[in-house]
Design goal:
single chain; mainly alpha; 3 helices; transmembrane; transmembrane helix; DUF2970 domain-containing protein; membrane
Amino acid sequence: MNLFDFWGLMFGGTTKDSYDKKNGEQKLWPSVLLIVLAVSGIFILHLLLSVLWK
């Protein structure tokens, strides 16, 4: 399972379609940014919860 399949499952596959139609970079960057933001957000939330549960 690659990144585009995972993203398509979450968001209806629009990113891979637009990535295939255009030759890429400006369509790819928003998804990379969103993934980075989501991962860092989950990480920060996890840190906050672990601090609160002590």
